[in-house]
Structures are given as structure tokens and as C-alpha cells.
Design a protein that fits this description.
homodimer; alpha/beta; Rossmann fold; six-stranded parallel sheet; five-stranded antiparallel sheet; 11 strands; 37% helix
Chain lengths: 249, 249
């Protein structure tokens, strides 16, 4: 168990999400523990492969819902041709919420301030090196000068990850949105008027994005608080991200 | 005019609100200018006392609405027993928005961060010296250790001023709310559950506060974004203050 705990500790220190599954009732292996990561990979073993396979979806759900509860599983016993029951305590530890901001303009600066105050991990991506500077974003956890879709296609995007597209430029925002929509992200927002949003949706539809996916884009972005300044728009966006996270929209 | 401009400049530098009124059409005094302050006092003169009296309400309205427009006034001419017309250009310069936070707990710290990012002037008041410290509130413009109602009764409270009462203690929040309700403030919010808010309203009603005034208190405070942490509650409050300022609630 020592090695497993070391891995658990290292994982939590790296601020990555995981779930633990521990057998608390059953014919054998009481106390055996499995670590389950967001991508479904595992560390450790419970002594029963069928049991492990059965609980992974519940463990991943618990990871994102921060749930801790006992689940009951019925698995076949190879030798005796009869089924046996296990009770497994599953506990989820989600990673800290993450905000990816695509487009390093004025709104992004205020949004970084708000998101950091709310303990989000903040990544700012912009292909334009003059915008994505450390002087403008001293508190961003990551500042990346690159094409956003290339970066996003290479990294894990989770239900705890929010993405806000602020580029005002189809050549950046469309490829970015296509990747975001293909993953299970917690929040996807894109700046632009109602008309811009409709035109963008139309172009994405033509490129093969299904209509039900397009509805997941929040645009016009942000809660309707009458925001006009970049700071107010950032506030409206942050409030919307939190509202969606708490299922209040 | 030199003296008037010096006063205008000094006033704007002190971040106080004022309006200017300039005669642009009329039988005489074209170009004469009057400065009007939020309390209705004036500096300068337009050469016609009746005209000055007539335009003060419009000037105060323009001050708070940031409006700039030409108004027409008809005043009696003492010598000729006939009325004369003036067209006056009135321009409003509101003071920067101000946030007064009563109660220097966790929510107040985050709220100060958000309000400063939105360029609010922030004053934090708490009778408890261990809470209202510079270490906890490095960015507050004013940090006052005193009974909040005593402080508030002595200072101007404007339509551009928002007040948020976070004390969770009737002995602080009730006297504070009574003063806030007696002025023309832009936003009044008080923390507490729906039941707390109702009980507080009942006590204030018993103490003589009219029912229509009590409706001006935002409580439960903040937009409904499912906020649970102090940081999220601060975000919900800030979003509500901005929404009310833009008449979106």
C-alpha cells in the first residue's frame, strides 16, 4: 500500500484529479485499493478484474462530482459458476477548476484576475506574442504563444475545465471551438454579438458540427448584467462559468 | 473663467462628481458657465438666478446619468414682463463608483479584489480591529475601524455608491441599513438567508422603516449562481452590483 499512497499524494500535489476505490465488504481482498485517473487508467489492484472494470465508470463520475459513497457490485466467480458481491467505497478528488482563455486581450487580463481570485488554474493562449506577455498576465499559471487548436488538441480537457474564446477572429476561434466541442468540457464560451454567434454556428454546422453540440457554446458570452467595459464583460463571463458549474443556468 | 476651470479640474482630480451648465443660446450671457455639485451647491454664475434654479435638478440628473445635452429653459424677464428663452448645454461627470463594505470577513477580501479590478473606490468598515487590517485588505482605498453607522452618518452617500453589509450581526447591520435606506444609494445589499432577511426586515419595520424602503435591500445578496465559497459569494455580489448599476435586475 505504501507505493499506492505515494502515487496518490504525488497526484494530488500535481493538482490532478483521481478517485480511490476500496473494497469494504466481500468474500476476499477487503481493504484492497485502486486509484482511478480521469482517462480511466488505474494503479493498484482489487484482485478481481471484472470488479475493476465494473467500477471504473462510477469512479470517474465520483471524481467529477466529488462524491464519496459505497457502491455494490455483483461479479461472476469463475470457479464456482455463482455470483459474488462486493461493497466498494469510492471517493472522488477532482482537480482544481481550470480556465483556458484563448485570446490575450483586455477582457482576458481582468478574467485572469477574477479566475485566480476564485482559485482557478489559468492558461492563456494567443498566437500573437505581443499580446500573450508576462507583463500583461503576471498571474496566469501558463502563458502560451501558439495556435490555440494545436495546443488544445494535445492536452486533456475535463468537465472541470472551462474555455473562453475571446479572439474575435474566425481563423482562431473556429478550430478552437471544434476541439472544445469534441471533448467533455464544463463550459465553452465565445465572444461576439448574437449575429456573430449565429454566423459562427452556421459556419461550424457547414463544417459538420452537429446542431446539439453547437448549443453548448455560450454566446453571446456571460450573464446579462449590462456589461460594457472589458472588466465588466470579464465579470459577467466569470459569473456565468460559476453558475454553469453549479448548474444554475 | 480661469478660476472656474481650476475648480473643475480640482474637483475631477479629487474624483468627486459635478455637472457643468453653459449658456449656448439666449439673449445674453452666451458662454457663461455654472458648476453644479451633487448636493446642489454651485460655483460660478449664469447672470440669471431663475435660470440657475431651474436647471439645477437637470444638472444633478445629468451628473448621475453621465448625460450631455442641450436643455431649453423659459424664464421671466423682470423688466419687460415677458419671458425669454435660454438653451443651456449641460454635461455630467459622475464620481467613480464606490463600494462600501461593512464587515471585514472572508467575503469582503474577495469582494475588494473584484471591486478594485472594476475600478471601484473601496471602503471597508468594521468595528473589530483584528478583522479590518491592512494585511487583510492591502488594496482597499479606505480601511476604517469604527461603528459603521457612525461613519456612514457623516459621509455623503450617492447613487454611485453601493453598500454591502456582511456582518451577520444585527447590532451592526440594522443601524447601517437604516442609514443606507435613508439616502439615495445605488445598491444596498445584506448577507443572510431568506429567513434572516425576513426577520431583519420585520425588525426594521417595527423600528419605523417603511415597507417600500425595505424592498430596496438586496437579500439574500448576490445573483443566483449557486455560490458556496466566500470567493463565489463575492463574485455573485459584484455581478449583482454591476447588474443593478446597468438596470439589468
Amino acid at each position: 500500500m505504501g507505493e499506492l499512497f505515494k502515487q496518490l499524494k504525488a497526484h494530488l500535489e500535481q493538482e490532478q484529479g483521481l478517485a480511490t476505490a476500496t473494497i469494504v465488504q466481500g468474500p476476499d481482498h477487503i481493504g484492497s485499493r485502486l486509484l482511478i485517473y480521469p482517462d480511466g487508467t488505474t494503479v493498484g489492484q482489487l484482485g478481481n478484474a471484472e470488479l475493476e472494470t465494473a467500477l471504473i465508470p462510477d469512479a470517474i463520475a465520483a471524481l467529477w462530482n466529488t462524491r464519496a459513497s459505497v457502491h455494490t457490485y455483483t461479479v461472476s466467480q469463475q470457479s464456482a459458476e455463482q455470483s459474488i458481491h462486493y461493497e466498494v467505497f469510492i471517493e472522488g478528488f477532482p482537480p482544481p477548476p481550470e480556465l483556458i482563455i484563448v485570446g490575450a486581450g483586455h477582457i482576458a487580463i481582468s478574467l485572469t484576475t477574477f479566475a485566480k481570485a476564485l482559485h482557478y488554474r489559468v492558461t492563456v493562449i494567443d498566437a500573437r506574442a505581443t499580446f500573450a506577455t508576462r507583463e500583461r498576465f503576471p498571474h496566469a499559471d501558463e502563458l502560451i504563444v501558439a495556435w490555440p487548436d494545436e495546443i488544445l488538441s494535445q492536452r486533456p480537457l475535463y468537465p472541470s475545465t472551462a474555455i473562453v474564446v475571446l479572439t474575435h477572429d474566425p481563423k482562431f476561434d473556429e478550430p478552437t471551438l471544434k476541439i472544445a466541442l469534441s471533448r467533455h468540457m464544463g463550459y465553452i464560451g465565445a465572444i461576439g454579438s448574437r449575429q456573430t454567434a449565429e454566423e459562427r454556428a452556421e459556419r461550424l454546422r457547414e463544417q459538420g458540427t452537429p446542431a446539439h453540440q453547437l448549443q453548448r457554446i455560450h454566446g453571446p458570452i456571460g450573464l446579462n448584467i449590462g456589461a460594457t467595459s472589458p472588466e465588466e464583460i470579464a465579470l459577467a463571463i466569470m459569473a456565468e462559468i460559476v453558475a454553469v458549474r453549479h448548474q444554475k443556468q
